[in-house]
Amino acid sequence: MTSPQAFTEYVRGPLRQELLNSATRFSTTYIFWMTAPAIVAALEDHLALWKARVPVRAAAAHFVAVVLGDYALWMSLCMRMLIALCFYFDAKCRWKIVDYLLTVLIHVIFCGSAFVGELIGTEASRRGLWTACAFMVFAGALLVGMMRLTWRACRV
What transmembrane ranges does the database entry give (predicted)? Predict the structure, then answer.
């Protein structure tokens, strides 16, 4: 057997199986790095509020609800949900059209939940600091719940 054929056989056989068996989890650090650009964009909005000399309570409500609650916690929840749905609906030798429809469904669920979080975070920010804190705690509790639900399911 030639060397390229042996390599291909090894990659498709024992190496693939070993990598699948030693599956790792998506850590919270990876989720944070995936949501970091959105958090930085929200911080830029917050900086604009600060430079415009918005009252401190309104700026604090925006920071807690939008930056922390929405972009840090809710977007992390959406990412976890996206990953969990991708693992749940992985390709199992179905028709291609079913795979495409499931991909669209996962995308719609992710975008819809992110949009709902954006609406709730913005409204919580407008209603005041206590409502913003309540939304942040709610988003954090949902994220912890999603992490516990998907702890064993989300394997790479």
Answer: 97-117, 129-151
